[in-house]
């Protein structure tokens, strides 16, 4: 019977901890922008990343043409 009371107290503590973490994330602005992440893949990069890459086997550089 004692284990049930201990599990209830532990469960309440864990629930309060998760609730605190959730409210902290909301106050820090974690959930402030819900639209941009869904369409971020459609935006073009401002400048392309490094265009040069090395072949694994030969070590030669491939430059874009």
Describe what you observe in this structure.
- The protein has 65 residues and is mainly α.
- The protein has a domain of 28 residues.
- It has two helices and two strands; from the N terminus they run ααββ.
- A two-stranded antiparallel ribbon has the order 1-2.
- It is elongated and about 70 Å long.
- It starts with a helix and ends with a strand.
Number of strands: 2
Helix content estimate? 40-55%
Low-confidence stretches: none
- How large is the radius of gyration? 25 Å
Question: What is the ordering of alpha helices and beta strands?
Answer: HHEE
Q: What's the pLDDT, averaged over the residues?
A: 81
Sheet with most strands: 2 strands, antiparallel
Shape: elongated
Topology:
Blueprint: H1 2-27, H2 36-39, E1 53-54, E2 61-62
Comma- or semicolon-separated keywords:
single chain; 65 residues; mainly alpha; two-stranded antiparallel ribbon; 6% strand; elongated
Summarize the entry for a quick read:
The chain has 65 residues and is mainly alpha-helical. Helices cover 46% and strands 6% of the residues. It has a two-stranded antiparallel ribbon.
């Amino acid at each position: 019977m004692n284990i049930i009371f201990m599990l209830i107290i532990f469960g309440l503590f864990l629930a309060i901890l998760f609730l605190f973490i959730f409210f902290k994330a909301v106050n820090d602005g974690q959930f402030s922008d819900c639209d941009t992440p869904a369409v971020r893949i459609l935006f073009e990069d401002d400048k392309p990343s490094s265009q040069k890459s090395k072949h694994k086997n030969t070590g030669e550089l491939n430059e874009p043409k």
